[in-house]
């Protein structure tokens, strides 16, 4: 986001931390107390699949970067990101971008998981793209938003339970990669079942990507039965 715009907007609409709603300075995305409380990149999260309960044997991406568990303040942050406030997306995008840059992986592009046209019309931005933009900027690589599409969620109701779980119909290829053997960072806000990342990674590989790295702001913990 444009810095001058943020500075001027702050005069009329003082900036608030999206996690605790305390006032913060115009150039901050969350307050320092919330930042201290959040512990990014928990070690128990598997770097292969991005879940604490490893399911690496069933994934089509090559490794995962995940900032937080989807709980507490991080969950508030994701909910605010889906509700008109981009700050937490920028904050986690910066963390992910730096983490990926430090990992010495040489990715060629960043692709956000797409949202349906209907959802986009309602929200007016793709929350995954807010995160992806920062990763692309920090790593100095392009953001590609025209490769994949998502069908409207209403279509989901007509699917069988198996199809819904697999998410096989929801996503598709809109345009193809122009170069072969690209290494792509696939970005989403939350990894839940992993089926969205899996399906989108499979599509990227189908169009010739050599490797796909999943990057997400958060991952859910398995529900205790
Ligand atoms: Zn705060
Ligand atoms: Zn794993």
Question: Strand order of the main beta sheet, please?
Answer: 1-6-5-2
> What is the CATH domain class of the largest domain?
Alpha Beta
User: In sequence order, what are the helices and strands, one letter per element?
Assistant: HHEHHEHHEHEEHE
Overall CATH architecture of the largest domain? 3-Layer(aba) Sandwich
Number of strand elements: 6
Q: So how many helices?
A: 8
Compute the gyration radius: what is it? 17 Å
Which structural class do you get from the secondary structure elements?
alpha/beta
Q: What ligands are attached or bound here?
A: zinc ion
Average pLDDT, rounded to a whole number, is: 90
Strand content: 15-25%
Spans with pLDDT under 50 lasting ≥5 residues?
none
Estimate nothing, just give the exact number of structural domains. 2
Distance between the termini: 42 Å
Reported for the largest beta sheet, the result is: 4 strands, parallel
List the helices and strands and how they pair.
Layout: H1 3-12, H2 32-37, E1 63-69, H3 72-81, H4 87-102, E2 109-112, H5 117-123, H6 127-139, E3 148-150, H7 161-166, E4 171-173, E5 183-191, H8 195-206, E6 211-219
Parallel strand pairs: 1-6, 2-5, 5-6
Antiparallel strand pairs: 3-4
Bound molecules: zinc ion (2 copies).
């Amino acid at each position: 986001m444009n810095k001058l715009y943020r500075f001027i907007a702050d005069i009329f609409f003082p900036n608030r931390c999206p996690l605790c709603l305390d006032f913060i300075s115009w150039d901050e995305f969350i307050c320092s107390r919330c930042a201290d409380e959040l512990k990014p990149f928990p070690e128990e999260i598997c770097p292969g699949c991005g879940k604490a309960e490893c399911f690496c044997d069933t994934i089509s991406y090559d490794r995962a970067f995940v900032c937080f568990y989807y709980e507490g303040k991080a969950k508030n942050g994701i909910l605010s990101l889906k509700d008109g406030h981009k700050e937490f997306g920028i904050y986690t995008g910066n963390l992910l971008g730096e983490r990926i840059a430090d990992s010495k992986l040489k990715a060629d592009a960043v692709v956000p998981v797409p949202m349906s046209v209907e959802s986009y019309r309602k929200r007016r931005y793709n929350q995954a793209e807010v995160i992806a933009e920062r990763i692309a900027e920090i790593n100095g690589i392009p953001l590609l938003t025209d490769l994949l599409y998502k069908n409207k969620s209403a279509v989901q109701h007509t699917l069988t339970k198996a199809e819904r779980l697999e998410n096989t119909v929801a996503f598709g290829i809109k345009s193809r990669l122009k170069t072969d053997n690209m290494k792509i960072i696939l970005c989403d806000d939350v990894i839940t079942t992993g089926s969205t990342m899996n399906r989108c990674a499979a599509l990227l590989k189908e169009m010739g990507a050599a490797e796909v790295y999943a990057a997400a702001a958060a991952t859910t913990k398995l529900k205790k039965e």
